[in-house]
Amino acid sequence: MNKLTTSVRGTTSAARVFAALLLALCVGVACLPSIAWATQGEEVQVSEQGDAATVDGSPFAIEDFSRAQVGSNSDIDGIYRGYHYLVSDKPGSVALVASENVTVVYVPAEVASEVGFDAASPTSCTYLKQLIVVLDEANARGGAVLSTEGEWLFTSEPEVERDGVVYRFDQELMPDEYFACVIGADGSDVTDSANPARVKLTHADFGTLVSADGVTVAAAPDGLEAFGAFLASIDLSPLWVTLKTTGTAIVFIFVLGLAAAYFSLRIPARAQDIADSIFTIPMVLPPTVCGFLLLLAFGKNTGIGQWFIDIGFPLIFSWQATVLAAVVVAFPLMYRSARGAFENLDPNMLDAARTLGWSNGKIFFKLMLPLSWSSIAAGAVLSFARALGEFGATLFLAGNYLGITRTIPIAIYFEWMSGNTEVALFWTVIIMIFSFIVILFINLWSRRTTKYRRRIS
């Protein structure tokens, strides 16, 4: 009775620890939207979508804001127009071109007159600078952000020159396509490192300057409402792809691992060493190497890959490829756990079963499997965890296709690369919860098995 009470208390304690950790993680995730929407200054209000903003006291506001991380330096109709950014399909947009040295802001004269902006007024320029800086940060996605410090140049002229560099705005270089261009005063390429007038451009921003009375910015949600809005904005397909992939892979891993462990012990000793090396090598190779080798083996230009295509089952860059990658990298854990458990069985006991007329199949399912089950279960859980966190081989073999091959580890990487740090952190929390559950299961199972063996002994 005391042992039972102790076991229940241990399990309850572990459950409380898990619940506390889960609650802490949820609170951390709940704070993510607040961090994401905390781009508001004390006087600047930004829309939830990050495309509009107002500032207290300003007669104008910005809407339809967008950001271009890169432009183009190619010729248009055979003529070099400089490094250019596509702004809009109509004239009249506010455009900003940022470089490491200066930030040039263009406000069309007609628009400036309508909304009350004066490029010569420090107050007007400060208001516009505040609006642009906050919106730029909200749309940066990991790129360079503007600062209210440094040199800013405001103009209502469609062409302005500074230090041998000409900035041109509202340039209709193609039908219904208006550009912002940066070119040397002599028509040279200012992005060329050999150019004395070289400037290092970082990005460009565009938007529509309107009267502040015509823009209503809804307050960003907070608390539980913010958490709910954050969850609603996340595409959960990586979670389902990961669970489907891992669940399917663990079936193959379990069966193949047991079979490989069993038959590797029934071959000659020298052959066992070779087989063991082959089955274990994916565990020591970098996952990217495994993915590259699988790509070479099953690629479209190989006989095997072409055969899969001919039967209407293309393997590369498909969901099946994610399963294959997970099986290959996680299989050695299952194999090593099962083989170690089988090797520790008493051979005299197995021989005794054979003298009683038991078949090899009966010995395996009735004797070897039950006696080795604790190690086999631990191996299966570890293999599941390894498949759950697979990244390198999956990216090489299956690619990154949303809803098809994008698993949680791949989603974390690409969300972070896109500047969506809060989404990447959300998926990190999810994978940590799964990992914690796996480790907790192994610990509870090991404790239960150890107590059982002690009672038997």
Q: Could you please describe the fold and organization of this structure?
A:
- With 457 residues, the protein is an alpha+beta fold.
- The protein folds into two domains: 44-218, no CATH class; 234-418, MetI-like fold.
- Helices cover 54% and strands 15% of the residues.
- It is built from 15 helices and eleven strands.
- The chain has helices spanning 2-36, 109-115, 122-138, 223-233, 237-264, 269-284, 287-298, 303-310, 319-343, 347-355, 360-371, 373-388, 392-398, 408-417, 421-456, and strands spanning 44-46, 53-55, 60-68, 83-88, 94-99, 102-106, 151-155, 159-162, 165-174, 177-184, 201-211.
- It has a five-stranded mixed sheet with strand order 3-11-5-6-7. A four-stranded antiparallel sheet has the order 4-10-9-8, with no helix packed on it.
- β8 (159-162) and β9 (165-174) form a beta hairpin.
- α1 packs antiparallel against α15, α5 (237-264) runs antiparallel to α12 and α9 (319-343) runs antiparallel to α12.
- The two termini are 19 Å apart.
- Residues 1-12 and 29-42 have low confidence and may be disordered.
What structural category do the secondary elements indicate? alpha+beta
CATH class of the largest domain: Mainly Alpha
What string gives the helices and strands in order?
HEEEEEEHHEEEEEHHHHHHHHHHHH
The CATH architecture of the largest domain: Orthogonal Bundle
Uncertain residue ranges: 1-12, 29-42
Q: Give the averaged pLDDT, no decimals.
A: 85
Given the C-alpha coordinates, what overall shape results? elongated
Helix content: 40-55%
The CATH topology of the largest domain corresponds to MetI-like fold
CA radius of gyration: 31 Å
Helix run count: 15
Largest sheet geometry: 5 strands, mixed
User: Strand fraction band?
Assistant: 15-25%
CATH fourth-tier homologous superfamily of the largest domain: MetI-like
Count the beta strands.
Answer: 11
Question: Strand order across the biggest sheet?
Answer: 3-11-5-6-7
